[in-house]
């Protein structure tokens, strides 16, 4: 099967899950490429805005061909930016077809706006499209406003869902969470993100006899990730267990604001890491902690458990994760409860890390997700007249 992946955002600005799924599909014997139009913003990085290529390029990423374009956005002007982004994707698709032929299926990541572009392409070329959804209501509220919303984007994206061969939320809870914008009258089924279980494999940790217990937090420095709550919780933990450390990594964690917030004994900040560096940090850690206020399906949780360590996080994670032995959850915005559960985890280390790792392999390995997507895409092809 010839599959074209279209992400709404992509490396180096997130979107690694698209590459992971492309690799999983290629592992099933499919012909898979990625068409990526990356929206640049002066506010996010003036240097990148000015220096990144101005023409469409092709490059190989982990043995996947990526057709890549960087689009310059107009500050604070959303609708023209969206229209320009979608038109560019349509143009890139026309050029792609000339070079590689029509794909059998288009796989868009997030309805906003890759899914919408896929819908327009589907109508023009009679190609089925599937949307994997990663964005929660909290992510959408910043642009659409609190529901019920009459924002111009909502009707376009609702239609995108309704006309898709299938919508694949990475967690079942997303359907209810976003129904206030999109409704629920569309075909959907849950498909997990992919975990690179070869990279994030099980590994036993060194004995704790002569070293501190290490928590790590893998999250961008963002209000939704609850770093203020984590800071309060870790401060409480340190008053009761001196031999505990906290390693922090993610975009923005090396900022002055984050360093000021976490300026306490036992905290080490690593900033933004690539996935290989993330794996090494996990192998130096004994548990993952996330104080998230909003979480769809955290790859960090799955990757940590895949390496064999437990997770302390909040009730925002999907029920499928909350029901596993390796995931300990507390209420959102409750620093005392978070501290208490962190202490519980570091004082009771007789857990079965191999069982955590095996559960992730059965749930989210490239082989499992690649096979599941292959079945869904084959059904989408059959549904097309």
Automatic annotation (TrEMBL):
Domain of life, per lineage: Bacteria
Keywords, sorted A to Z: Transferase
InterPro entries, per the entry: Glyco_trans_4-like_N (IPR028098), Glycosyltransferase_grp1 (IPR050194)
Record carries keyword Nucleotide-binding: no
Stored Pfam families: Glyco_trans_1_4, Glyco_transf_4
Domain called Glycosyltransferase subfamily 4-like N-terminal: residue spans: 18-198
GO molecular function: glycosyltransferase activity
KW Transferase (keyword) present: yes
PANTHER family attached to this UniProt entry: SULFOQUINOVOSYL TRANSFERASE SQD2
Name the UniProt record assigns to this protein: Glycosyltransferase involved in cell wall bisynthesis
């Amino acid at each position: 099967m010839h599959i074209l992946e279209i992400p709404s955002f992509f490396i180096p600005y997130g979107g690694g899950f698209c590459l992971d799924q492309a690799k999983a599909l290629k592992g099933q014997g499919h012909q898979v490429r990625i068409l990526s139009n990356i929206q640049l913003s002066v506010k996010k990085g003036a240097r990148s805005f000015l220096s990144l290529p101005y023409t469409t390029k092709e490059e190989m990423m982990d043995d996947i061909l990526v057709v890549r374009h960087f689009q310059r956005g107009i500050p604070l002007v959303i609708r023209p930016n969206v229209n320009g982004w979608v038109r560019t994707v349509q143009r890139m698709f026309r050029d792609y077809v000339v070079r590689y032929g029509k794909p059998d299926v288009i796989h868009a990541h997030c309805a906003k706006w890759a899914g919408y572009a896929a819908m327009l392409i589907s109508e023009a070329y009679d190609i089925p499209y599937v949307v994997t959804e990663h964005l929660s209501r909290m992510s959408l509220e910043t642009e659409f406003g609190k529901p019920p919303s009459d924002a111009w984007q909502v009707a376009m994206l609702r239609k995108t869902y309704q006309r898709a061969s299938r919508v694949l939320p990475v967690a079942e809870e997303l359907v209810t969470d976003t129904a206030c914008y999109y409704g629920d009258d569309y075909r959907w089924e849950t498909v997990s993100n992919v975990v690179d279980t070869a990279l994030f494999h099980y590994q036993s940790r060194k004995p704790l006899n002569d070293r501190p217990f290490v928590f790590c937090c893998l999250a961008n420095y963002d209000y939704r990730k609850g770093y203020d709550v984590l800071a309060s919780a870790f401060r409480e933990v340190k008053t009761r267990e001196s031999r505990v450390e906290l390693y922090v990594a993610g975009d923005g964690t090396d900022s002055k604001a984050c360093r000021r917030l976490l300026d306490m004994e036992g905290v080490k900040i690593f900033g933004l890491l690539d996935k290989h560096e993330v794996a090494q940090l996990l192998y130096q850690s004994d548990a993952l902690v996330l104080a998230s206020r909003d979480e769809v399906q955290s790859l960090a949780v799955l990757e940590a458990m895949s390496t064999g360590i437990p997770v302390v996080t909040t009730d925002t994670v999907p029920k499928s994760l909350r029901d596993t032995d390796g995931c300990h959850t507390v209420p959102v915005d409750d620093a005392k409860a978070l501290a208490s559960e962190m202490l519980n985890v570091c004082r009771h280390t007789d857990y079965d890390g191999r069982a955590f790792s095996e559960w992730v392999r059965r749930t989210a390995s490239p082989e499992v997700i690649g096979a599941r997507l292959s079945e869904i895409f084959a059904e989408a092809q059959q549904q097309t007249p």
